[in-house]
Structures
1.
Amino acid sequence: MTTENASQGGRIFRPGSHVGIAILAASAAVLLAVSAYLAFFYAPTERVMGFVQKIFYFHVPAAWMMLWSAPLMAFGSVMYLVTRQEKWDRISDAAVELAVLFGVMTLVTGPLWGRKAWGVYWVWDVRLTSSLVMVMTLLACKIVRSYAGEGARNIAAGLSILAVLNAVFVYVSVNYWRGTHPDHIVRKGGLSPKMRTTFWLAVLGFHLLYAVLLWTRVRLARLEDEADQRQIGLEEVEPT
Amino acid sequence: MTAKILPALRRGVTKLMTWAFVLPASALAQSPSQETGFVPVSGAPDAAKVDPVPLVVVAYGAIFFLVLAYVVYLARRQAELARRIESASPPTER
């Protein structure tokens, strides 16, 4: 390994590079802890649904994060297909992974809320079904990336663009089909001031968490790619 | 041979066409959005008897667990990367 390569390797663990992200991560943790506390001890219990409505404060932000990933996935995928630069593929891949993470959160917490609110864990409502399809499409994206070999990135980019169209459908579905899932409660001002404060703090916490995870994931992928390329270079210089 | 295939093909196409019309129609048949809030599912067990506390605890616990699991996954990948870099460096540079 050359001195230049060694200094690149040292860059990975440079202490100063972690300070900004550590502050962001600590802020996200504090905000989420505070919003969880407020959800239970500050926000009033909802009149109709009662205590189970507390799930709302983390369920909705998680769903929003899943949907926020969609434009990022689309942008990354389209840019990769056009420019063939790997950095766009890394961004798209990270966004897909985070969409799966927050999508699973949504799909786990939603049915728990539904068990009390609707009497059943799951109904084949338009929004629920389209959310499930979206998460499954994104999982397919990850599986393709792992097993499809050459050309996997192109297929994954195509699948993530498809998932983006699905995300739009998830969002607008409640406007056109009144299923079991409630309408846009937040947008229509269906929250009391205390509920609103708690909810928006949780939303901010989830946004910070998303930013931290995205940054970490993209950076890790970039460093792994650099390490792969360096290892290939090393093997070419010193054949075994 | 053809006499057997054609009726089967006709039945298959008929079923396909039926589903192609029935599925969107059933989706569209859901009443348009008018009210805000939760609508109980008809015929479901009485939701009033369900204790909400375990549901809320599991929901918040699941979110905490999923975030923690993802952070651990990233940390393990990062540790693996560090090991690779360490092993690739000549002894003098370690």
2.
Amino acid sequence: MTDSILSSLDRINAKYSMFRSMTSCTEMGESGFLFSAKDNLTSSDMETCCGSRILEGYHPAFDATAIAKMRDAGGKLIGKTNMDEFGFGTFSSNSAFGIPKNPFDLERSCGGSSGGSACAAAVIEDHVSLGVSTGGSICCPASFCGVYGIAPTYGRVSRYGLIDYGNSLDKIGLLSADPKKLSKYLPIISGKDEKDPTSCVQPDLKTEHRRIKSVAIPREATVGISKDVGSAFSDATEILKSMGIDVDYVDMPALKFAMPAYYILATSEASTNLARYVGMRYGQQDGDLSLKFDDYFTSFRSEYFGDEAKRRILLGTYTRMAGFRDRYYAKALKVRMYVIDAYKQIFADHDAVLTPTMPFVSPRFDDISEMSPVDVYKADYLTVPANLSGTPHLSVPCGYDGNGMPIGMQFVTDHWNEDYLLTMAEDWDRSFDVRRAEVVL
Amino acid sequence: MKIGLEIHVQLPTKSKMFCSCPTTDADAPNTHVCPTCLGMPGSRPVLNRRALEYGIMLAKMLNCTIAETTWFSRKTYFYPDMSKSVQITQYDNPVGEKGMYYLNGKTPIRITRIHLEEDPGKTKRVGDQSSLVDYNRSGIPLAEIVTEPDLKTPAEAREFLGQLIADIRHVIDLPGDGERSIRCDCNLSVGKERCEVKNVTGLKNVERALTFEMIRQTKVLKAGGKVERETRRFDEERGVTVSVRKKEMESDYGYIDEPDLGVYHIGKLSESITIGESPLKMTLRLSEEYDIDGKTAKQLVSTSMDLANLFERIAEASDAKTALTWTTGPIAANWKAFEQRCGDPSEIVKIVKRFKEGEITDTECSLELKSFMTGADPADIESSSADLDALIGEYLEQNPEVAEDARKNDKAANRIIGYVMKKTGGAYSSSDIVAATKKALNSEK
């Protein structure tokens, strides 16, 4: 079966555009399984360009630790998945290299920014894909494509080789249609890595199959969601109760502060991370060398960054400017602590916080083009808080709307408690009838 | 007039600040580099703990308040030699703040802060149209010491810097060519607005650059003009400062915390670090404790701190005056040879003690010291020293005006040295000749 997948990759990609680059090798060889990785994880044997023209042609000298660990475990990297440029987006529509198409409806988005990974997980049999979440980029596409997605605790998986969006927020996780693959591969990619100091403070990932016994649903998270999402979510809570899980409603006013704090921190960090792309040393380097260096840098960045990247560079540069730094950046750091606190208070009495993953099902591309940037940012309001607080979270398919589009719900547990989520995903898969998209090539 | 300095010291770590590339000189450009110091996407910094320790040592030396927690920040600016367009430096909570340094042990110079940062690479102009970039230096650890504008004159600034470098060299074991690893940004204001002269290397150049700036600003003000706040560069060959750019305000760098590195709790680490007495402090202490003049104390310490330590041991075994005579005389004269032989200084203490207790005469003492310190046969020394004495005696007798001069002025001995060197073909060291001359002059009295 795996050989037939390898030989049909071109055709799969022609239909769904989930890959930016793919292996040309059609033989499994010694490999035990296939996996794909988001195109912001460096791979020594495949171009890595983060959905950006500015990195077109970049062949990294080293493998990201997560990719290296998957390879060591016998994995064969089949492709680098399409994404919003540097992770800047919710629909994977901000890629310079085509937009991945939803397996349930090709006119709709896969979600983002790990849209290509979710698409691969939904379309390719027996597949697991490495995704990256900064503000919801694993759970959102998992929800839109009807698959499972887990973003572990910040620091659980080494970020060495992850091309940064917001370093204090970025987390590497997994997407798959099969929850057992999350349980199998999360321990493989986790662990301390001396090349990433933020991975070195973690306690061991224990897989003891601990079960979530109680969930808290913040009332704030049930406002502003579509009717279809609301009713699917409410049906899903009944299933949870039938599984013996207590479901409580709580107030969590901190949720509404997470969004502005997140965008300030993420864009502040992003604007410094993107400063290195000046057309020297790697990626595109074909600018006019007769220019003075700063004019060269400017012309290059103007030419090769996409609109959303430019918007976030401007936002992030503004929020860390003199006179604004305290008002925005420094305050956002405090809000982050406040949100973490709010979670901790709930975790004192509950094992998890539960919300829908996205407020609506995947929108059609023509509707997306009508949305303002702020409308798009707001769509992340349910996934952003867990990302801001660095707490692990999981999206599971929990229903389908009238058009058959998948709906997801999201569990958030306390730091380092991924075990609860992994068990939950497997239990849920036995209690709920998850649909697979029909793949006709 | 106000002068403040920002002094960049390269810290003598074996590997770079945030990666394991070596800090030694490379044979070719861009060979001591890796993804991290080249700023390749996906690479990450890992702090070299030794750099942090050096920072703490310097902060202690400068009597700074040492932070309980310290962390790094990102300073964003665009320049080809800055591989990430982001420099990892310290902004909030640097290693040390609010320090004090006493120039000549007296004049207080306030230290604003000391922080750690990485060095950028180097650009090299090639012809008119292009430059080359070498990233071998990218990521070398630096400590930046910032003073308050407490220095009054260019000469004072030079003196301060000289003392500071000597102290730094002692505290963190900088290599002998440490001066090239120290760069200085010089801020000077004659009126209200200040100018910064970037990247001046060497004590002499610091004084030259500041003097030029002082005169330039004075002229501008006298002509009724206004000094503009700007960054300038020192042209070593022409001895002038040249405007580079109008100064961006510090805050335009848009500092944020470096998210890839954590918060370092250095309270305990700092407690565990002790630093030795600095040369300056030792000079002042010796001068006070043993009642010797400042110049002699300084000479003793600057020859070698080990020699100064030996002086203290001899003083303990005998008395300060005896110790001083012998340490600055025959012991200093043979010190280099002794250091090369890695001898045991306790033996020296014993020899002088025997002299003090009257067991040996001063000629015998001198002979024994020289023999022990250089490893030469006493008989050879005796005969050659007798030859030298004879030669000098003869010369002084024939040139009474030189003898007269030499009594008043140490420099007159140069003529005697020249004479003996010529006569013997350099068989005697100049320190031996000076010692013999002194002996001859004293015996004449």
3.
Amino acid sequence: MLNEILPSLSLNIKSIIMNLPENIKYSLEEIRLRENKPLALTINQTVYNVTERSVIKPSAEYIRSNGLFYSVTHKDIENTMQLISNYSIYAFEDELKNCFITIKGGHRVGLVGRVVLENGRIKTQKNIASMNFRISKEKKGIAKYVLPYILENKTIKNALVISPPKCGKTTLLRDLARNISNMGYNTGIIDERSEIAGCFNGLPCKDVGINTDILDGCPKDIGIMLIIRSMSPQVVITDEIGRMEDLNAIQECLRTGTSIITSIHGSSLEDINERPFVKQLYLTKAFDVYVTLSSKMGTGTLEKIQDKNFNVIMSGPVKME
Amino acid sequence: MILKILGSLIVLISTTLFGIQISHKYRTRPLVLSDMIRCLEYLITQISYGQTSLPESFDNLSTSQLSSDKASFIFKSALKILKCEEGITIGESFDRALDSSDLYLNKQDKNILKYLSPNLGNTDAENQIKSIKLVIQQLSGQLSEAEQLRQKNEKLFKELGFLFGLMIVILLI
């Protein structure tokens, strides 16, 4: 997986990452580049800094270490920007507006710098100063913890995955898609950020099953109806709902009798229920199953599963592996 | 006597060739400049309509029959440098390709082209097009100047070479 990211990194950083010990390379979650700041790696939810010789130390010790660590230069950022955009940033204007680019393999690279506004809307970004490579992991088989609650009597229930960022939400959705698809259900994925299937030139880089159609890069509210009309899937899978437009699309989807599995940012059902958006969903009883994730036992901890009346039908925490 | 004739022939031929070479320079520069302008215009369409990436557009440029080899050669060699050397930006490789090639362009022409390199691929489409257009505008100025020079000097140097040789021969004899 790391091999897909290496070609996008500038020369110095690439060699540092390549020389890391194998076990660290394997458990690497993020690579963060901040101009004139030490290179930061996230491993098991802890931030580390790294020296030029690829020795890592927890970032909390940085202040005491008087500048021993590799500091990211302007040139590093510039080179990396050119590499991830294939030397053509102009071809990624929409991505810059949304603050991230998805590179080959479905890895998301977050980019922030100075925003340029036009008529109160973001026109583009310049002077990118921070980049975050999020290494997306494929964990085949984790759906088995959740699937029995979603699939009942050969019907797919509508499910909402609730999770704070970085707890394995997309990974779970991907594995659910793969399993449901391989059981012989036509599955449609609306992959607004090219993360679930990691499409590159229209073809998925991740295994999302044999009966899966992917509408790549399409906004969810439009995409849900489009894929139902065009491909008539039995279940629609999409990531990170949260806007009012999405709500209408979900209700429209349920009216057509198509099941939906999706996710939302939040720490628990009770927490997100405060938001008017979710309250609406609850009132209309849109979802049959609520799955809550956390990072209590590391990335990918299943906290609990609740039914449509919020009764807990499975309680964790269980680490999904 | 034969030696004298042979010697003067050699002098005559060599000065004539020298003159031709200089006039060739004057003839080729406007050709290369207009080819270059055409290449840059092609880049603009690639950027604005297709949003094609720069390496791909460079490749298209060097394979298309759009311009003579002389101008598109730059893009080809920039692409080669880019592929061979890790950690180089596309602007730097373009710069280096300009420096290393003999293009019948003078220093000023090259400096104008180098305006492109710091921004190449680093900004949004609007800015890319703006800076390319600026360069085209300035190159057009250079082109009309080169054209005038050609009209003035192309024939002149060709004849001058011959006449100069003739003068030497007459003086020596």
